[in-house]
Specification:
Length: 300
């Protein structure tokens, strides 16, 4: 009999419907996403790119209520490794998303570091390794952001290691966690991105469990990933090749990840994100239905 993992709250996100941008003709309309994510059996969603879903709290609340949906988190992108000069522009972006996230009753803000390689064109934007000074800017900046988001909006930030950013591999993630205050900075563990960058999600949960504040559930196709790594393919083109695949066909196995997370003894969101930008409009819903069925078989 499957163990019931009662500390894990499952949801999905616009990302699983091929949504990467606030407005893009290749993406499904927001109302279709809301209809289909509810039809697939999910009750929690993320906001996705700011401006994709309605940004008026009253309107968005009404749209969610009639579909029995709730928001688990908002998402922001940052480039805090560039130092204090980017703080004001960063905060202008963060406060918009944080205000809507707070208004929707969510408690988490997912923070993604900026890309060093353009995710569409593969252009190298910055060196893939940070200098010691940039590491200090990144860690101190994230602590400042965590403090200000908590003080102003009552939200916890969870920083998301991501392919083609400076926070990707096990070594980088551990360096970041060891250099930041647990009271101010949590981690959003994305199982797919961490595997993409060579990490072991179960090991990270068992080693740094007190820092895990949020989960993204995702798998990678190991054969496509091997080619992506061998040929230094950028993340965007890798997604178009299908590197992020439908569970349970890829790695890591999600059941051990969920069981390890359950053992932490805290309530955690586990939000499904299967990167598929761009994708045919009729593709996401059947995948979402099958993924929700699979996760139920895992006990969530």
């Amino acid at each position: 009999m499957t163990e019931v993992l009662d500390r894990i709250r499952v949801g999905s996100a616009p990302d699983s419907w091929g949504v990467w941008f606030p407005d893009d003709p290749q993406q499904v309309p927001w109302h279709r996403f809301l209809d289909e994510v509810a039809e697939a059996g999910y009750s929690w969603i993320e906001l996705g790119p700011y401006g994709y879903l309605p940004t008026d709290p009253a309107r968005l609340t009404g749209e969610l209520d009639k579909r029995n949906l709730r928001v688990s988190a908002g998402t922001v992108f940052t480039a805090l490794h560039r130092g204090p000069d980017v703080w004001d522009s960063t905060w202008d972006h963060v406060r918009q998303v944080a205000a809507l996230t707070q208004a929707m009753g969510a408690r988490h803000l997912v923070v993604i570091p900026s890309f060093w390689r353009d995710d569409k064109t593969a252009e190298i934007l910055e060196p893939p390794e940070l200098t010691s000074e940039q590491w200090t800017h990144l860690t101190r900046g994230m602590e400042r952001l965590g403090r200000q988001v908590k003080d102003t909006y009552g939200l916890d930030i969870v920083v998301h290691p991501h392919a083609d950013t400076h926070l990707d591999t096990r070594a980088h993630v551990e360096r970041f966690l060891d250099a930041t205050d647990p009271a101010l900075v949590g981690l959003c563990l994305d199982t797919g991105h961490y595997a993409y960058c060579g990490g072991d999600s179960v090991e990270l949960i068992e080693t740094y469990g007190e820092r895990i504040g949020y989960l993204h559930l995702k798998q990678v196709d190991p054969d496509i990933l091997a080619d992506v790594v061998a040929n230094q393919v950028a993340f965007g083109p890798a997604v178009r090749r299908g590197v992020m695949c439908e569970p349970p066909t890829g790695v890591p196995a999600l059941e051990p990840v969920l069981q390890a997370a359950q053992k932490l003894g805290v309530d955690l969101f586990a939000i499904v994100e299967q990167d598929m930008y761009p994708c045919p409009p009729d593709k996401p819903l059947p995948i979402a239905v099958r993924t929700r069925r699979f996760l139920r078989s895992c006990g969530v």
